[in-house]
Write a structure and sequence with these properties.
Elements: E1 4-10, H1 15-23, E2 25-33, H2 44-51, E3 56-59, H3 62-71, E4 79-81, H4 88-94, E5 106-111, H5 120-132, E6 137-142, H6 148-157, E7 164-168, H7 174-179, E8 182-185, H8 194-201, E9 206-209, E10 225-227, H9 231-243, H10 245-257, H11 266-272
C-alpha cells in the first residue's frame, strides 16, 4: 500500500497485525488482541518482532491485558484496555423485531462461531441430559463455522433434532436473545464476550463456563452463574436456573440496575491515534 496514512490499525491478532506492520506506511500503528493470548496458539517469537513495531497493543479486558503483560513484559507500557463497544439503546431497539420463537417451554439461546473455542459440543451433551431429565426445552444457536457438520452428527445421534437448533448466521440476533429464558455461553476461552454483554443489556439470566475472563463480566450467583467447563456442569447450572424462580429474578433485577453501555470507549481510540 503506497499511500501514507496517519494511523494503521490491525484490528485482530495474527495476520491483520502482520499486514499492518509489513504492508502499510503509517505514522502510528496499533494492534488489537481480542482474546486470551495464551489460548490462541500464537508464536510469541514471531509476535515479539511485530509487537516491538506497534505503538499500542490494545486488548478487550483487564485479564487479557494481564496475560499480555506476563507474556511480553518488555511491552507492558504499550498494553491498553479498550472494552468492546455496546449500545443499550441500539440493542433494545433492534430486539423488538419480530421472530418466530413460539415454543412454550424453556428457551435457551447461545451466540458464537461453531468452533472448538465456543464449546458447543458440550452444549449438545448438556441438552441431551436436560431432555433425559424431563425438561421441556429448545436450545437455539446463532452462528456458523467449521464444526457445523460435527454438531449436526451429534444432534442426530442424541435424537435432538428440533430441540438443539442451529439457526446459522443472523444479521440481528437480539430478538432471539430477547425471547430467551436463559442465555448460555459454553466457551473454552474468550477475550471479553460481546454476546454476554448483549445478553446482560437484555436482562437475561446468564450461564457461562469458567473461562479465564468470565469473572470480568459476571459476578457468580449475583448477576449470572459461572460453572465448570464441562457438559455436566453446564447441565446442572441450567437445571438450577430453570428450577429456581428466586435466583432467576435476582439475576434479572441485578442486571436491570447495572449501567451497561460502553459507547464512551470510542474516546480511547481517538486518544491512541493522537
Amino acid at each position: 500500500m503506497n499511500k501514507q496514512y496517519d494511523v494503521a490499525i490491525g484490528y485482530l491478532e495474527n495476520h491483520p497485525i502482520y499486514f499492518c506492520i509489513d504492508k502499510v506506511i503509517a505514522t502510528k500503528k496499533i494492534g488489537f488482541i481480542h482474546n486470551d493470548y495464551d489460548k490462541l496458539g500464537m508464536d510469541p517469537d514471531i509476535d515479539m518482532d511485530y509487537f516491538c513495531k506497534l505503538d499500542n497493543i490494545v486488548t478487550v479486558s483487564e485479564e487479557c491485558a494481564n496475560i499480555l503483560k506476563q507474556r511480553f513484559p518488555m511491552f507492558s507500557h504499550k498494553v491498553e484496555v479498550m472494552y468492546n463497544i455496546v449500545s443499550p439503546n441500539m440493542i433494545n431497539n433492534m430486539a423488538l423485531e419480530k421472530v418466530a420463537m413460539n415454543f412454550k417451554g424453556v428457551k435457551l439461546v447461545s451466540v458464537g462461531r461453531l468452533t472448538y473455542q465456543k464449546g458447543f459440543e458440550m452444549a449438545v451433551e448438556a441438552c441431551k441430559s436436560l431432555v433425559e431429565s424431563g425438561h421441556d426445552i429448545q436450545w437455539y444457536i446463532i452462528g456458523e463455522g467449521e464444526d457445523r457438520e460435527k454438531l449436526e452428527k451429534m444432534i442426530e445421534e442424541y435424537h435432538l433434532k428440533g430441540i438443539f437448533i442451529l439457526l446459522g448466521l443472523k444479521e440481528n440476533p437480539y430478538p432471539y436473545i430477547n425471547q430467551a429464558d436463559i442465555y448460555v455461553q459454553p466457551s473454552r476461552f474468550e477475550g471479553k464476550s460481546i454476546a454476554i454483554d448483549e445478553a446482560k443489556i437484555l436482562h437475561k439470566p446468564i450461564i457461562a463456563t469458567n473461562f479465564s475472563t468470565a469473572k470480568d463480566q459476571l459476578m457468580d450467583k449475583k448477576n449470572g452463574l459461572i460453572v465448570e467447563m464441562d457438559s455436566t456442569s453446564i447441565f446442572e447450572g441450567i437445571k438450577k436456573i430453570i428450577g429456581d424462580d428466586v435466583l432467576r429474578t435476582t439475576f434479572i433485577d441485578s442486571l436491570a440496575k447495572e449501567k451497561l453501555g460502553t459507547e464512551n470507549e470510542i474516546q480511547k481510540l481517538y486518544d491512541f491515534c493522537r
